[in-house]
């Protein structure tokens, strides 16, 4: 009986396998689609293990099989497919091919760079090997590296906004292959993006936003000039103090809590013309990364965010020129080879000329800026590259010969990159960064000069043990020279005497290690530790106070007052005044449910040892940096974040949502009526408190097609608390939590870009924010016939709702022209419906009527802009 059943089963199988079908398979056909073709023509059903993803594409070659018997089809497919088919009765079983079925091949390293059509490295491009269904992402230098078995492969490069590039590559030993990708701004909707997710689902990195220069140049801004710094205000969790204000605030943090880096060197002032322009020239900037949380161990020194800005690398093969002419400023960039394929240079300059129009109108006022960026690169060989980056910028103001001011920055960075092996490389860099501010008031016959200068050294190593385990480690050193100011009389009858405020010196050193570990296909873990040390150094004399309190409370008038020094301690040159050290652990975890969805969580502690002395919400050019010391402790941050990340339709759409909580210890605040400018004993107006912020961020993007853009929304709260030091003291706002000046309960940005045709594109940006917290007058009292306002508790009120809509149109006369003179026009309207957003409120008495008045100051109404841009 057993033999009869077996024979019947065998005959049944022969009959089934003799059925003929017609099917087509290629690299774009998923298993699910293949199953449908077979099941619609036969009685076969498919069975498969959990390891098989039917939405994946397992076929490596394109073939059409006509009227082929099932047994022959299965034989053919098993020779070319990376899965195994087998017929059992009326079932077709599908499983992963066993390792023994494919002989083990020697592995080699496939490396190279990805460049765009400007010969700039493309950061974050996806390198995908079709046959292996695996890939990597290019690093900050546009470089990729992956271990593959020897063989022949189809390698595809993809990046949003660029055409896909594909090459057939044979690997028999360590192989280097470079790729060049072309921008595809005209037909984005037709690009097929393979494994190019808008959100990297599996990486542990979260709370970071990246903007390419293509995105930055599409965002309309005031004066019609693209501005990298203004562009980040469209991202969730990022705000500033309002129109024409410098600095930016991240997740409720102050502007001085942001670490801003230009090619690795710290930037101490980020704007021109009191905030109308940033110091970053969009022509030479290659891209920017904004870290809001989950910050890697290699960064330190600030407690709110890290803005990492990189400059372009000059073209190694041909000379190029591009620039633009705008209403109030123009720019020019030149780049080319110093020695073909070995050395390159890039120079870029900007200058404003609004002051010339003032002169023509017999206006004695003057306001202008200029800056110059440069970068030189030289490749000695495949393992050694030397580069130099530089920046110099200045602002000049002159108001009716009554007020004159110049301020600006100078930076230089020398970097040596060395490759020890395929697994180990290093970057040794040294830099100088200086910010200076000069003020002269001729009618008062005095000048005031101040500056901060720093000298730094960094040595970082990257070690890749395998694709699943990487180690980054390094050391940093930074020496500071703070000059709070020197007052100089400019005439013999000046009321001012020469006075040098105490200079301050400090040394900051740190070491870090960071591990990236892929635990499973779905679980990734990054963990690290930074150890930082800070030394406040002499030559300096420190005042001492009774009970160690530089600020005293007057119970009679219920106010805080400056304490009176009762002595001093002198420290010689290089002697330690104060020292601090902190361990700063970092950790981040990601779990991918599938290729489209993941959750992430992170924690980081950071220490900040230097602070800006300013009681305004937006840092001013005269704001003074000061180090931690006997009366000013380092700020310490603990930040927790978790989020949900999702890609839709193979990356056409993406969603990022995050929750965060930040707690900052030792956040300084100022007593009412604090006098900060030219104060040699600044500790007399400072109180130490704490700060916190928490909220939710949402970022939804449309990444491909003729219409692209994003919507970002943040719901958050930022608060400070400065309690009294004794039960009798009220602190600030009665010692309760009060809104910080950076609180924006609601923050909404909508950015869109539409490609109408190759000649015309349109861009728009809508911004809506809660008004900035302020302190209003809630009454007044009269003294000597003068009405003096009486103010409410600190930041108890808000400015009116802030919003504006900006639009721009780009016209390219000859879009198909790829050589010779190429140009385009940009027409823009900032604040198209002429919203009079309040920059501040002042409380005064009308001189004519004697009535109390509240006056709103607005900076911008509608602002038209036009610029002509070219390259050749």
UniProtKB/TrEMBL annotation:
It is found in: Cell outer membrane. Its main location: membrane. One of its GO terms (cellular component) is cell outer membrane. Residues 201-301 form the TonB-dependent receptor plug domain. It is a multi-pass membrane protein. Belongs to the TonB-dependent receptor family. This is TonB-dependent Receptor Plug Domain.
